[in-house]
Amino acid sequence: MRTIYFDNGATTAPDPLVIEEMVRYLTDYYGNPSSGHQVGREARAGVELARQRVAAALGAKPQEIVFTSGGSEADYLAIRGTVKALGRQQGHIIISAFEHHAVLDTCLALEREGFIITLAEIGEDGIIDPGVVEREMRPETFLLSVMHANNEIGTVQPVREIAVLAHKHGIVAHTDAVQSFGKIPVDVNELGVDLLTVSSHKIHGPKGAGALYIREGTPWEPINFGGGQEATRRPGTENVPGVVGLGAAAEMAVRRLEEDAERVRLLRERLVDGVLNGISGSSLNGDRVRRIPGNVHFSFKGVPSRDLLAELDQRGICASGASACSSGACTASHVLTAIGLPLALALSAVRFTLSKDNTLDEVDFTLEALCEVVGRIRRENPR
Predict the structure, then answer these.
(1) Per-residue pLDDT averaged across 142-149, rounded?
(2) Domain coordinates in residue numbering, the chain
């Protein structure tokens, strides 16, 4: 049975060229990058080349890049490091209502410690209005975090406009760019943010590697200690092969961004047209245009997403859903709740995320399977 992988929003297959670069740092250049001898210097050279590559991809300076274990850790460090640097014991933080749990849960933990957290409302189109964010700002607001592209519905947010408003009020601005980086242009100077997070395994690099961009002069302090690595900003021996893979993947993604984005966008539009025109009771969640190229998020009225995903999996098609039912209780994804999607549609939502590795034939095969499976599930479970 063939496998069609349409879950690239969860992780991507490492590119062969990325793997080739990484392997050298598992075999030939295996040293500890903190060691002063030749083998250690070779490993250090790989780390610093990766830092330069990631910085160049973001329009940043190499010294503004801190390597982490992934996007989630980078989000956590961005928020906690800002709180610590400002010496805050209380205060007000604004985040969007559909942030990734790495941001959301970190802020909810701060709320339990006495901070005030505001979840800024999202429009039904999956786009946040900068005016809504500004209206939530208070004299005690010191930090704002709005993701660049949503991890479920793929909508791209007006981060630049929000960052301008934040700075007008003296607020530090962070964005989670894990889903957007390498898929649409992500330049820290264009976006105007103070902190930005990226992840390797979303751009055909390895898992376990990410980076936090910290603009020079931003109030930020490390929250962990113990080794002095990453200019004392994040202790622990660097994951050299992972860091090298991130650097290679970032450079490759930016170099091929325009070409890959256009090809993936055409595949996405064929899938969207095929579903909306060929399957009654289907709908697209989030703005059709203002989204990252490879993301499509549908609801199929009367078709539980868990049933649909299971049927697709049996046909070798890998997709994903975030809402769930267990023990008789149904829970909608907080992202879909944030855009006001009714529970029935939230529980019938499925995400397909495409990459440069996907083909037109795979899209057409999936469309045929969807038409068949959706129709059969509806016939067997009339509502």
Answers:
(1) 98
(2) 4-12+257-380, 16-255
Confidence of residue 327 (pLDDT cuts 50, 70, 90): very low
pLDDT for 324 beyond 60: no
Q: What is the pTM (predicted TM-score) of this model?
A: 0.96
Residue 93 identity (one-letter amino acid): I
Domain 16-255 has CATH 3.40.640.10: yes
Return the active site residues. Answer: 325
Find the DSSP H helices in 194-287: 240-255, 257-278
Summarised one tens digit per residue, pLDDT across range 332-373 is 899 999 999 999 999 999 999 999 999 999 999 999 999 999
Give the H/E segment covering residue 199.
Answer: strand 195-199
Residues 6+ apart with CB under 8 A from 153: 126, 285, 286, 291, 295, 297, 335, 336, 339, 351
Is residue 70 within 8 A of residue 234, CB to CB? The reply is no
The order of strands in the sheet holding 295-300 is: 282-284, 295-300, 349-353
Domain 4-12+257-380 has CATH 3.90.1150.10: yes
22 φψ region: left (φ > 0), alpha (ψ -120 to 50), beta (else): alpha
